[in-house]
Design a protein that fits this description.
The protein is mostly helical and 181 residues long. It has helices at 2-12, 24-49, 53-67, 71-94, 103-118, 123-143, 147-162.
């Protein structure tokens, strides 16, 4: 899936010409804080999920999926995947070349991001995708630029998939000694 998302970003092409240079740093900082905030909300949700058998199973699935890919490869795939997703979904599908992003387009972005994760069959991943879609869509709409949405996406994905990861389900330590996702 990641490879196809990287490719979709390449197909989208172009660059975001609506970036406002005077506001660039402030919006990127806002994006970074929003990505970290979305990660924090995801951690809180994961801690709640650990209380149920289904939640522990879902967290275990996320952990197994993430650990199946070595960390250096996760780092190498993170940037092109986030760029591909944002370029394709945010700029081509959701914004559709329009100058404004209305509420219905923001909703479309939430549905698109959640829908991509629906294939996993894991409600935790669907909820995470919906949250990321909402945050990145709101940043894109508020700033008029792709930069803060991309920054939020990179921060969220880096914290979730590279380090420190999501809370592991309770149980025995994995054989490889890793505790992060």
């Amino acid at each position: 899936m990641t490879v196809s998302l990287v490719g979709s970003g390449a197909l989208a092409g172009g660059r975001d010409r609506r970036t406002r240079p005077a506001e660039g740093r402030g919006w990127r900082l806002t994006g970074a804080l929003a990505g970290a905030g979305t990660y924090a909300a995801t951690v809180v949700a994961a801690l709640g999920l650990r209380r149920s058998a289904a939640g522990r199973r879902w967290l275990g699935q996320v952990r197994a999926c993430t650990e199946s890919c070595p960390r250096p490869l996760r780092v190498a795939l993170l940037v092109p995947a986030a760029v591909g997703e944002e370029l394709y979904w945010r700029e081509r599908v959701v914004a559709g070349g329009a100058h404004g992003v209305g509420a219905w387009r923001l909703g479309l972005g939430v549905l698109a991001y959640a829908g991509v994760q629906a294939g996993s069959g894991n409600p935790a991943m669907v909820a995470g995708g919906a949250a990321l879609g909402l945050v990145t869509g709101a940043l894109r709409a508020g700033s008029g630029s792709l930069a803060p949405a991309l920054t939020a996406h990179l921060v969220f994905s880096g914290l979730t998939m590279i380090w420190p990861g999501l809370p592991a389900p309770p149980g025995p330590e994995p054989a490889n000694g890793r505790t992060e996702l």
